[in-house]
Amino acid sequence: MSRLSSTIDGWRSFDSFAAEGLISALDPRAIILSALCTVIAMTGAGKGEVMVLLPLTAFPLTLMVLADIPALWLVKRILPVLPFALMIGLLNPWLEQGTVTLPGGAEISTGWFTLSSITLRALISAATALLLIASVGLLNISRGLAGLKVPALFITQLQMLFRYFFVIGEEFQRMERAWRLRSGSRRGRMPLKLAAQLLQNLFLRSLARAGRIHNAMLARGFNGEVPAGAPLHWRLRDTLWLAGWAGFALLCRSNLPLLLGTLLTGQPQ
Amino acid sequence: MSHHYLHFNSVSFTYPDGTKALSEVSFEMHHGERIGLIGANGAGKSTLLQLLGGFLVAQSGSIDLGGLKITPSTIAEVRRTLGFVFQDADDQLFMPTVFEDVAFGPANLGVEEPELTPLVLETLKRTGIAHLADRPPYHLSGGQKRAAAIATVLASTPSMLVLDEPANALDPMARRRIIEQLKGFTHSQLIASHDLDLVLDLCHRVVILHEGKVAAVAPPMTVFKDKELLARCGLLPPLRMQQLPPEGPQLKVVEGHHHEAPHHHHTAEK
Q: Which residue of B lies nearest to A223 if distances are taken between CA atoms?
């Protein structure tokens, strides 16, 4: 099995952690809103404010621990984001004019902070999104979004997109297996020309399969909205969870490391 | 009015590319009856099922489901009445867990908690897969997927089951279980299949389609004994009705081992 094919297999168990851990005891709305607080705090930070961003990693890490998600699982899935983030900020250390003096007296370009900030933002965003789906489950996220009065059209689109990703993945696996079985002595990567031809076929096949799945949904009364399931119940623990993370995001927005430094030294930083 | 009654009345359908798939197809299915829909590839079985599900609309003739004509305006009610089990169970199972997949149909029909969960659990129990409730469908075996696909349909309490190749790609034990399960249901059932042994086991009557037309409607034994009809429609009798060679395989004993002679295949050791 190729690496891409086994990656697709790995993604299929994406929300299998949803039924486990303490996270499943919380109302999905509380988790979605707390993730939103984290994202808002993150986007509000200045372009080179690495120290403001660092504490925000606490949110995805908490989700990971409470949902019993292995760290390696997360690392394997967010690492692909890293090259994109690096590509965006790679030239900043050379392009930015400003310098910062480090405690030892050495001067470095402010671009290094921008690069770190971009990378950190990408990692926090990817980790939060992945862990949100992995720990809460797409169905519960949909219920939560419906409970937050997000338009049904948007929720259905989200679910269909998620499902279509796997339909494409499954069709790719079948085609790739067929190619491997008949590729004779040719090993390793598929020739680019053939890959392009298969890509065209892949979309036609996945579209046909998506049509069959849609028919199966229609046959079972699907009318454009995936049923929300059992009603949600907001409890005291959900209020505490949300209040805690909203407060923490607010603190981070006010530069938590700076506040801690002031508190510890008694001197304005 | 019973929703268990089905009447195809001179139904014709031609695809946009000009392929005539069905021509003047007529037959009836009565309350509690199991009908086998058979025919060679391209005979029109899939088109007929698609018309029944409202995925295609007949250009002429009518389909009557317990007094309800199948038209675009009645399709929602038709789908409440029919339970469709598709050929590929992977196309039918799309929710994260078996439980949620089985709950999908009744929830769409307006069943809410606290009725929904007991209904789903009861259906899972009835189809023998209660222990799989929390499993993701793609982790199931072929037989389990098929049972789950049937459960997703039964949970919506349909009056009639429409099954496309219900024993497709199942091992002999799983196939036998599905046959016994279908025998146990009181629903009227329309079963499209190339598995003629299954049709012989299950069905009260058989509709043979040939080149988009109904070639015969009769009890399975009558149809399967008519070799001329079967040959004309590109079919063979069920395996158990095919004549076996008069002799079993020839066995030679070579240095204490049994070797089966290559030109005999069908019978037990002599």
A: B108
